[in-house]
Amino acid sequence: MKTYCKPAEINIESLDFIKEQVHLCFTGKRSKRRFQNLLVSTGKITRAELREEIRNCTCNKSLTAIDAVAEQAHADILARSVSFEPVRQFQLRENGKLRNICEESPWQQIFEYIAKGALDPLFRAKLLPIQYGSLPGKGQIAGKR
After folding, report:
1. CA 8 to mean position of chain CA atoms
2. What is the pTM of this model?
3. What backbone torsions phi and psi does residue 32 show, to the nearest 5 degrees?
4. Among 33, 31, 36, 37, CA closest to 54
């Protein structure tokens, strides 16, 4: 773990790293109601402005609001005071089937993106099929193929 998760490459307390991960989290999710509520709660954008930006496919004020969310996540990480709402569980009837659905808060999803981004070097080194040295049943012959 120490070999692949080096703070020199990835600093989870860096505001730039957190902003990058938060922007990735918001990609394609601006139109979801819970994510919109999070953006509006920053005070950087109103709901009407957000609807207008989604309709016009622009993101001027949205980017400012997303940066404010990243700054709040950064402050929570530095203060070591990260907390989430409970996971919401409900049943959904879809095509005659009853499905059990769990929905995480947007805040929890943001922190999952941050954690995944921090662990990416480890995942790339240890979990992908191109790593042959540490996987049982794989060896030099499989690597050569």
Report:
1. 21
2. 0.78
3. -80, 135
4. 31
